[in-house]
């Protein structure tokens, strides 16, 4: 059952970039972030009421706040980057997140990192470089727009790393739906000023935009993170990582199929390299744990 949950989550998350690009002409990235959390909270709240007959939200645990702040930052920066770039660009967040978590393990948790693990991290970085390069001339790589785009993905990776580390702590003492409901409730509160600060033109909220926002919030964010947290309890972490990283390949497929984005051989090669790097990194980590 855990494998099926991860597979469903992987496919759901792979549609994020396509749906974000589908609304980028109608709502700004900040309003999209807020609406996503609104729909996620409504979905998870309804699920809690049906399953537990009550709403459980935790505002006391500091790790809930740390996770929410990280998730908010990660999602807002991802939306901004996707608005500026291509839908497939979201695949960069995963290897960046992996490298950041490796550095956190080394310098914060004082874990000893093996040479093989550093080698796997180099594969991840090589994959990121090839995707960022994409066969372009050097002057295009050093363009301020390209650098800004990579910086946004880097900041998103930092936020997502904080979110993942916090959830690992929380999953030991809370149930999955309470964790995600509490985190997304705080995310919603943190982003609720966005529509007032950055503005929203209701005339542009057509049916397609509303449906895309609904799916991003309820299915991809609400259901996706609930299934992922549940699956982490049922299967080993390494197997979950291997399967969830396959979403990058689905993301490339949807970007090419639905948006006709130029998914070149460089993009595919870079994606394969960082997926292999992430898998090896987690394999070596589990090997060391034994």
UniProtKB/TrEMBL annotation:
The keyword Cell membrane applies. Residues 2-132, 150-282 form the EamA domain. Its main location: membrane. InterPro entries: Diverse_Substrate_Transporter (IPR051258), EamA_dom (IPR000620), EmrE-like (IPR037185). SUPFAM superfamilies: Multidrug resistance efflux transporter EmrE. GO terms for cellular component: plasma membrane. It is a multi-pass membrane protein. Keywords: Cell membrane, Membrane, Transmembrane, Transmembrane helix. The keyword NAD does not apply. Belongs to the EamA transporter family. This is EamA domain-containing protein. It comes from Tepidanaerobacter acetatoxydans (strain DSM 21804 / JCM 16047 / Re1).
């Amino acid at each position: 059952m855990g494998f099926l949950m991860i597979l469903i989550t992987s496919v759901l998350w792979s549609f994020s970039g396509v749906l974000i690009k589908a609304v980028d002409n109608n709502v700004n990235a900040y309003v999209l972030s807020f609406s996503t959390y609104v729909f996620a909270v409504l979905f998870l709240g309804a699920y809690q009421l049906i399953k537990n007959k009550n709403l459980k939200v935790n505002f006391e645990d500091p790790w809930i706040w740390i996770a929410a702040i990280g998730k908010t930052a990660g999602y807002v920066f991802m939306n901004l980057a996707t608005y500026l770039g291509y839908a497939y660009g979201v695949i960069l967040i995963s290897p960046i997140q992996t490298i950041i978590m490796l550095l956190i393990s080394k310098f914060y948790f004082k874990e000893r990192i093996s040479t093989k693990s550093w080698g796997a991290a180099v594969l991840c970085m090589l994959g990121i470089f090839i995707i960022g390069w994409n066969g372009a001339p050097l002057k295009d790589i050093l363009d301020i727009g390209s650098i800004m785009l990579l910086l946004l993905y880097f900041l998103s990776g930092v936020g997502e790393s904080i979110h993942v580390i916090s959830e690992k702590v929380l999953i030991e003492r809370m149930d999955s739906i309470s964790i995600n409901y509490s985190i997304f409730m705080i995310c919603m509160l943190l982003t609720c000023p966005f529509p007032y600060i950055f503005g929203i033109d209701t005339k542009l909220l057509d049916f397609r935009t509303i449906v895309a926002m609904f799916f991003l919030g309820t299915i991809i964010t609400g259901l996706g993170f609930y299934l992922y947290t549940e699956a982490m309890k049922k299967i080993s972490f390494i197997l979950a990582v291997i399967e969830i990283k396959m979403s990058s390949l689905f993301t490339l497929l949807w970007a090419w199929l639905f948006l006709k984005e130029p998914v070149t051989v460089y993009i595919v090669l870079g994606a394969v390299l960082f997926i292999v790097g992430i898998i090896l990194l987690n394999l070596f980590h589990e090997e060391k744990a034994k």
